[in-house]
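Internal ticket - ligand job 271, 3-methyl-2-oxobutanoic acid:
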Amino acid sequence: MSVAGKARKVTTHTLLEMKASGEKITMLTAYDYSLAKIVDGGGVDVILVGDSASNVMAGNDTTIPITLDHMIYHAQCVVRAVDRALIVVDMPFGSYQGDSKEALSSAIRIMKESDAHAVKLEGGSEVVESVERILSAGIPVMGHLGLTPQSIYKFGTYTVRAKEEEEAAKLIEDSKLLEQAGCFSIVYEKIPAGLAAKASKILTIPTIGIGAGPDCDGQVLVLHDLLGITHEFNPRFLRRYMQLYDEITGAVQNYVSDVRSGDFPNEDESY
Ligand code: KIV
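stdout (C-alpha cells):
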C-alpha cells in the first residue's frame, strides 16, 4: 500500500523491476467481473483475459473459435473489477496472424473498447512484424512461446514443446527477437524447465511460465484449473488449490434436496 492508503497499480515497468530484484511475478486468468474482483483482491500482479475463455467459458475444445468481440466483452467485464493488477488480453486466433495492419487494428479495438493495459499474442519470428506494428502505436505486448494452443492443429497434440535441440534453439532465438522488438514479457507454456531457466537468464524482460518449471520470473495458471472447477483437466504442471467442482456439486445437491423437501425457504427466509 502507498502512503495514500491506495494499492499501488502494477505496470509493465513494475514487472521489469520485479525481475531485476528477483521478486516472483504472479499471473492468473479471469474472464468475468466477480472472479476478477476476487483475484485482484487476492494480490495477483497480472490478470490475463486468456483466450482459454474459449474452453473454460464457452465449452469449445480449442481456443480457435473465440472471436475478437468475445475477447473484448470478457476484457470489459474484468476491467470493471480490477483496481491493482495489470490486465493483459489475449489476441484471438485470426486477429493478428499474417497481416500486421489487421493486427494493429485488432489491438487498438481491444485497448479502446475494453480499457485493458496490454495484449498478448502467440508466436515468434512469424508474428514479429505484427508485434512491432502494435508496439509502434504504444500498446504493450506480451509474447507467448512453447506450446501455443492456437496452433494446435499444426502440433497435433498438447504435449511438451521444444524437447529437441532444434526447437529449443528456435525458442531462444524467438525470445531474443521478441525482446528486441519491445515485448515487455514472454509466457513460456509447457517447455522443459532447463530450457525455461536458460532463456530466463538470457533475457532482461520477465518470463512467465505455465508448465515451464520454477526458474521463470513468474508463474501463470488458468483460474478455473487452480480452483478445481475444470476437474477433468489434470496436467502434471497443475497444482489445484481447491476442489470446487465437488464443493459446488454438493451445494447444488443440498439446494435441490432442501427445495424438494420444503425445508427451503423457511420462515426466517420469507417476508
Ligand atoms: O489463454 C490462456 O489462458 C493462456 C495461458 C495458458 C497462459 O494463454
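Auto-summary: The two ends are 43 Å apart (CA to CA). Confidence is low (pLDDT under 50) at residues 1-5.
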